[in-house]
Structures are given as structure tokens and as C-alpha cells.
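User: Here's a structure from my thesis project, written as C-alpha cells. My advisor, Dr. K., wants to see whether a designed sequence matches the one we expressed. Can you design one independently, without my sequence as a hint?
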């Protein structure tokens, strides 16, 4: 019998590049050294061309994997409002955003590695098959080698695989869950976990045990390929450091999705 054990690994991703014009969102420079993948806004829900360029450069300086973060065209609502788009319109929206971010990466001698929807678009795709399929087909048609990040156990996972994409199932340390594996809507008071120790405990449970405790107390199975860190939350750098310390103590490697 072999004594070799398989070490656990997790990709730590963070939404980045969400500033635009004179308005600053998050502490990208502080968070980037602590994560393995960056989801960079493409100028529709947040970000602008200059911010896209600068964020790609900063990610490359820190050896962080590049990802496009497409969302609804809703700067005022920060992409957190559902827009009534047909699947073809969703497809077009994602093609343009991923294509633009791929071009920004290419201009700096780099390539995109993944795509992760933002906000309302991401949440809609988790439960709505036509939206999920539109996103998956858009990603595939731009670059079939891109990894699609999707809420663990969601319809976006199925759509991505059906489209022939590699899918990374995503979990959240600082969001609460429902019995069906969905995230608690941000409109509800208990949607966010504000206690860092509780959030770290939830992250470790998802990675090590493959479950998350829903608000009801039910143990819900999850697959944790990548863990989201919200860079716009207060104390994001401190929380990222705490996660890295906990992962190191537990022998969990942090690396981009293979």
C-alpha cells in the first residue's frame, strides 16, 4: 500500500478592475499578491479600457491567471440588476466582453485563462438554462480552451460541460447558502458572512469535506474547484491573508485551476 496522499488544492479568485474614471473600487494592488486568479471587469458593469490594461499588467506582475468578468451593461447598478435580454443578446454581450479582454491580454503578450460572469448575469445563469447556454456558447466560440467558472452544482456547470468547456465549480466563503445550493440573494439581510473566522471555517469545510452548511442547518454537497474572494468588501486584504494562513496550516495548496 502506498503512503502517498493527494494534497488538496484550491484556486483563489477575486473580482478585479472594477474602478472606472476617477471612481475607485477595491484594493486590487493589495489583494492581487494573495490570489491565484483575477476576474477582470470588461467595461460593461464596471471598469474602462485603461483600467482593464492596468489590471492585466498588475496581475501579470504578480503571476496571477487572467480571466474575463463579463456582466450586464449596467454601470449604474453595478451589474447587480437583471436586464431582460434574450439568449442571443446575452451571447452577443459575452462575446464582445470576452473578446475585448482577450485583446487586452494579447496586447501584453498574455492569454486569458478563464471567464466568470458577474453579479446578476452570473446568478441568472446559475438557475436559467437558456442564459447559461448562451454564456457557455459565447465563451466556446471565442476560445474553446477557456475555463468557465460557474456556481457549484448550477445549470451553468451543466451548460458549460455540454458546450465542451472545462468548468471550474466555484464556492464562496463569505456568502450564505440555501438548501438547494443557491446563494442567498444579496437583497436579504443574511446573505453575507461578515465574521472572518466563520467565513474561513466555511471555506475549509467546502474544500476538505465537500459540503456547506445552509442557513437551515442542512449539509449541502458542493464541489470546490475555485473559491471567490470579494475584493470590494471591507478588509479584503486582511481576509485574503487569513485565508492563505488557514490554507497553509491545513496543507491546502493555492494555485490556478489546472
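Assistant: Designed independently from the structure alone:
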Amino acid at each position: 500500500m502506498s503512503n502517498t496522499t493527494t494534497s488538496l488544492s484550491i484556486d483563489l479568485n477575486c473580482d478585479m478592475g472594477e474602478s472606472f474614471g476617477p471612481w475607485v473600487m477595491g484594493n486590487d494592488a493589495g489583494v492581487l499578491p494573495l490570489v491565484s486568479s483575477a476576474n477582470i471587469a470588461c467595461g460593461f458593469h464596471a471598469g474602462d479600457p485603461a483600467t482593464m490594461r492596468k489590471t492585466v499588467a498588475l496581475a501579470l506582475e504578480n503571476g496571477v491567471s487572467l480571466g474575463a468578468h463579463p456582466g450586464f451593461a449596467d454601470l449604474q447598478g453595478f451589474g447587480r440588476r437583471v436586464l431582460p435580454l434574450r439568449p442571443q443578446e446575452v451571447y452577443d454581450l459575452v462575446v464582445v466582453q470576452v473578446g475585448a479582454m482577450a485583446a487586452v491580454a494579447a496586447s501584453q503578450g498574455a492569454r486569458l485563462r478563464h471567464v466568470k460572469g458577474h453579479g446578476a448575469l452570473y446568478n441568472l445563469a446559475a438557475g436559467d438554462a437558456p442564459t447559461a447556454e448562451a454564456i457557455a456558447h459565447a465563451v466556446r466560440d471565442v476560445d474553446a480552451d477557456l475555463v468557465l467558472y460557474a456556481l457549484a452544482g448550477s445549470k451553468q456547470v451543466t451548460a458549460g460541460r455540454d458546450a465542451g468547456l472545462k468548468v471550474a465549480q466555484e464556492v464562496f466563503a463569505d456568502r450564505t447558502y440555501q438548501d438547494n445550493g443557491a446563494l442567498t440573494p444579496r437583497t436579504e439581510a443574511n446573505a453575507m458572512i461578515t465574521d472572518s473566522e466563520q467565513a474561513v471555517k466555511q471555506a475549509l469545510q467546502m474544500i476538505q469535506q465537500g459540503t456547506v452548511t445552509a442557513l437551515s442547518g442542512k449539509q449541502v454537497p458542493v464541489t470546490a474547484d475555485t473559491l471567490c474572494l470579494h475584493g470590494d468588501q471591507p478588509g479584503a486584504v486582511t481576509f485574503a491573508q487569513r485565508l492563505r494562513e488557514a490554507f497553509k496550516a491545513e496543507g491546502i495548496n493555492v494555485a490556478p485551476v489546472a
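When you compare it with your expressed construct, this may help: The chain has one domain: 9-254.
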